[in-house]
Amino acid sequence: MTGEAVFRAGQLATPLGKSPMSGEQMSELLVIDDAGLAVKDGMIRAVGRFSEVRRRARGRTVDLGDSLVIPGLVDSHSHVLFAGSREGELGMKLSGSSYMDILASGGGILSTVSKTRHASRRLLAASASERVKSMMLGGVTAVEAKSGYGLNLRDELKMLRAAGDISCGSRIVPTYLGAHALPPDVGREEYVSEIVEKHLPAVRRQSLSAFCDIFVEKGAFTLDEARFILGRAKSMGFAVTAHIDEFSDTGGSVLSGELGALSLSHLAHTPRSEFADIAAAGTVGIILPTTPLFSMSSRYPDAHGMVSEGMAVAIGSDLSPNSWNESLLLSCLLSVYSCGLKQEEAVTAATLNSACAIGIGSEAGSLERGKRADFVCLGVDSYRKLFYRHSPGQVLSVYVGGKKAA
């Protein structure tokens, strides 16, 4: 065996595999003390005890000290592409206005839509690049980036093209979310027809995204509209996903079985009785633990119940103008303290399961031979101290393809 470098760490902790871990499997981490990681041409060639890996591999040694190494974090749900900000809405929330109250008054998504429509592709890519760089400093090496603030063909395509322009070192996975809200200048039926007749074919033809998302909620899109839009998307070859049950029980979990949804996000109001059906469909549940925090809600996803019922759980930041969170580690922290995940489950949720939820599980999300050498070096000596200790300086370094990126 040859290798460009052999990394040594105090401890390495990783899930294994190319498929999402579900239920109790989410606690199954490979943990190696005095660990070695051999890397060649950006790919992992060997993982094991340092003495054994060093004996078999050639190349320089990179000593990471007594630190903990885990796979690069994967943000499986973000709205990182947008223009402007909405800091004025914080005062409205503090005064008792709900997310839907703000949306109904012309704020919320519609405020961002106006600013995004007026922004250039270059500006959108540049501002998103700065956010993704900040996310990388927190250990994120892959980011899902949704459209959804254009709400017309021209600007939705502009957003997806801007996703391809993001320059930051992280892997970017674009998702089409034209059905994020109803545009102010087009009627409901007309816009639904526009999505299926114009948006989806154009996105597919130009290979701008392999995923189609929709926001199912009162004041947004109905479950029947989701069935129609996602059904058409799936027939065109898109993998489908949906925002469901953020503010109420929408019944959207049926999309897992009916359409074979790759993932479903939010799930804060999803009844526990539906978790087993989601699990049986093989759909990944993406929880967004900082969203209730920013929305001033006490209703967090029941991730403990999801795991108990056999679901595969992933974690996303939901970075957006409504919940401006650039720290996936903060989301992981809340997944433990507010959603009931174990520490090992949170690691799996933010790495392998998140990678699988956005279609990159075969190459990212775990530290094992044949995967890309994306990993994070943390200033603790054991994975058991993750989410027990929280510090702005917790991430010491980030490697993408075996090269130091942050």
Give structural notes.
The protein is an alpha/beta fold and 406 residues long. The protein has two domains: 106 residues, Urease, subunit C, domain 1 (Roll); 284 residues, TIM Barrel (Alpha-Beta Barrel), CATH 3.20.20.140. 55% of the residues are buried.
Gist of the model:
Helix content is 34%, strand content 22%.
Helix content: 25-40%
Which sheet architecture does the biggest sheet show?
A: 8 strands, mixed
Average pLDDT works out at: 96
CATH class of the largest domain: Alpha Beta
Structural class: alpha/beta
> Tally of extended strands?
16
- The proportion of residues in beta strands is 15-25%
Number of domains: 2
At the fourth CATH level, what is the homologous superfamily of the largest domain?
Metal-dependent hydrolases
Low-confidence stretches: none
In the CATH hierarchy, what is the architecture of the largest domain at level 2? Answer: Alpha-Beta Barrel
- CATH fold description of the largest domain: TIM Barrel
User: What is the 3D form?
Assistant: globular
Q: Could you give the distance between the termini?
A: 28 Å
Q: What is the count of DSSP helices, taking H or I runs of 4+ residues?
A: 15
The Cα radius of gyration reads 21 Å
Output the keywords.
alpha/beta; 8-stranded parallel sheet; Urease, subunit C, domain 1; 406 residues; 15 helices; 8-stranded mixed sheet; globular; 16 strands; TIM Barrel
